[in-house]
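Hello Y.,

Per our agreement to keep a running log of every chain we model this quarter, I'm adding this entry. I've kept the format consistent with earlier entries: sequence first, then predicted structure.
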Amino acid sequence: AKPHRCFSPHLAGVAATFLISVLHGPLAAADDEPPPWPICGPYPPSGNYTQNSTYRANIDLLSATLPRNASLSPALYATGDVGDVPDIVYGQALCRGDVANASACEACVAAAFRGARRACPLYKDVIIFYDLCQLRFSNRNFFLDDDYLVTTYTLLRSRVVGTPAFDAAVGLLLNATADHAVEDSSRRFGTGEEGFDDRRNPKIYALAQCAPEKTADVCRSCLNVIIGQLPNSFRGRTGGGMFGVWCNFRYEVYPFFPGRPLVQLPRFVERPPASAPPVTGGEEKKRNSAGKVLAILMPTIAVILAIAVVYFFCWRKRRPEEDAYLPCKAS
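Predicted structure for the entry above:
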């Protein structure tokens, strides 16, 4: 007897395609998950290292210098590399643009190194996001990448408002905040606030940031890509964000950053549906003249058509014989 096949090759192919799309797509956080938010082994996968390897030693060397270098930078940003191929480690650290002092930035990046190894043990390539900083180390020279979407972490809030007006208000605020970040040539950072007509959510707060080394055009392109995910991933959500290597955004219905927002928008007002423009005096006269012309022409046309129809039917009723023997006059 033939063995019973419980999983066809076609289904296996479909399942494999689905898994690849999930593994290579943006990583989504569980609802309301607090930081840190790690990405272990982002695509393309780089493999693992062993505990007492040269690669591990190079991570330790990088962790001894990168936090300090980021804190000393006016942009609160630093990159570096340690070792040689195949054990080279590339690193990037970025603190949020509103971090109060250098020591807070240094402490956050140092904690990120420890948190990355706890969350993603023995992974060669790790990205981890905290409230005040983010870190990546990898055996790949990711500084050459222009990936704005695949290597991102998506944070979604569980509470849903469910009104199109709220989504429109979020989009307006995030784009205005992104514009400010693009124009900030020193830190590529912006925060924003907007009023909203809802007793439970009277205000919306937003933050946007790019890696300071990026040009204004690259920063805007990166933010456009991730903010463009709002309709698909954030519809009705009262908060969330997308965090990537080169840019990120976040919004909430509570203040999650200190100080006065750099962008302040007035209370959002939903636009009413567009109505037909009012008719002017000149247009009214034109309409009246056209109506008079039609009133004269239409009856005339109707009479002509009626005569034509009557004549046509009378002609059709004649017998062929009568048509053949019509009298004629002799010349």
